[in-house]
Amino acid sequence: MSDFRYQTALAAAHVHALEWLGSLHTRTLPPRVDDAVIAGSLGELPDGPEDAAATIDLLAERMEPGLTGIGSGRFFGFVMGGAHPAALAADWLVSAWDQNAAMRATTPATAAAEETAGRWVLDLLGLPRGASVGFATGATMANFVGILAARGELLRRAGWDLDRGMVGAPPIRVLAGAQVHLSPEAALRYAGLPQPELVAADRQSRMIPAALEAALATAPGQPTIVLLQAGDIHSGDSDPFAELIPIAHRHGAWVHVDGAIGLWQAASPALRHLVAGVELADSWTTDAHKTLNVPYDCGLVIVRDERAHRAATAMHGPYIDDFNDGHGQPFDYVPEMSRRARGVPVWAVLRSLGRQGVVDLVDRMALRARRLAEGIAAIPGATVLNNVVFTQASIVFESDETTRRVVAAILDEGEVWMSGSEWQGRIVLRISVSNWQTSEDDVERSIAAVARAVALVGAGVG
Ligand SMILES: *Cc1c(COP(=O)(O)O)cnc(C)c1O
């Protein structure tokens, strides 16, 4: 009986999933209704039980008008990846297996798959073999853990025991590039650390080494975290790590790299020069749900010094320590006790792509972004502000007002999805190519859609 219920509910989900995925090639990408409409259609709590499959049918039917086509090859909004088939299917199994991926003795299979995936990621990205890897919900939590590891280690070196709390602790200084993302700034707040002092960056958002040197020289000996980034959300470019990290280390600072987008360049022989020296850092963040196209949610935190990592997030206590075999436990590396085995889809996508497939994935995104920017640059009135080195392009039109209208017209038509943003004091149309499926055809269709929006806005402005 219960088996049968699983069968009909999962079969219904399977049908709806394939319908949704199939619709991504042709559908209008923005949602057709807002959340209030969906809430209205979902609002009634029935008095009694309902068949699980019927619930799934109802859910799919009611949700569909309010979904965004994020998985489409013509979705370029924010920085959002699609879902590779192997990763998505593995994610279904993770839910069906329902393992609490905390301790290796109780869930040895998920521990082994995640540890294997972690080793593969270190290998692909050229990061130190002995570094520890935690599978967090995303780059924000990964940044948080990296910053916690930094905080704990800097305070330990200063002779402060964190079990006493932060009140009265030696003050930690934080330096970041002028274009630091909101995510590490939030992580600093969670960690009770000050907002970063901003170090000058160039037009590609790359921190200027002489400016870092000068900033560090103002407070010699103070415990300091230097936040760098691989893959700026507007330029796609990365900090010059090979110059910056030795400077930071000469001053005793801990270097954390937010590589949510850009760390994957290290896997590509054609792109890796853009992140040269990134392996010298002390901790790194990257996302799996962006470039790697694992379904939400999954981000990775990587720490060179495993001891500092575990000191930041591991739990201790009688019934847990019984399971401790001397190796770290999967839940030692993220601030969660119970969690899904979100590293398993990472194993699946890497296994399915293979080494060359990862290179092709990353290279293809960069190639499509360059072509997209080139095609849009040829539209009268459009200017690409950045040097498109990776997946990101930021475009302006004659005025901020025109750019705003172009973005609105693009979303209104719905053939493609692109975000508005603000960069270098201008309103920009921002593009991120982060989907494994974005094809040459998607790119040409998208250039045509932007041209239509520009024509429409031009006609309206007169
Ligand atoms: C997306 C992004 C983040 C935040 O990642 P989440 O996975 O959404 O938490 C942090 N930093 C950069 C550079 C990003 O692009």
Describe this structure in words.
Helix 9 (241-250) links the parallel strand 4 (224-229) and strand 5 (254-258). Helix 8 (209-217) packs parallel to helix 9 (241-250). 44% of the residues lie in helices and 11% in strands. The strands form two sheets. Strands 1-7-6-5-4-2-3 form a seven-stranded mixed beta sheet, with helices on both faces. A four-stranded antiparallel beta sheet has the order 8-9-11-10. The protein has helices at 2-23, 35-42, 52-63, 85-97, 108-125, 139-157, 182-190, 209-217, 241-250, 306-313, 318-321, 344-377, 400-413, 440-461; strands at 132-136, 173-177, 197-199, 224-229, 254-258, 283-287, 299-303, 383-384, 392-396, 419-423, 426-432. The protein is an alpha/beta fold. It binds pyridoxal-5'-phosphate. Pyridoxal-5'-phosphate (PLP) is lined by residues 79, 138-140, 181, 183, 229, 231, 233, 258, 260-261, 287, 299.
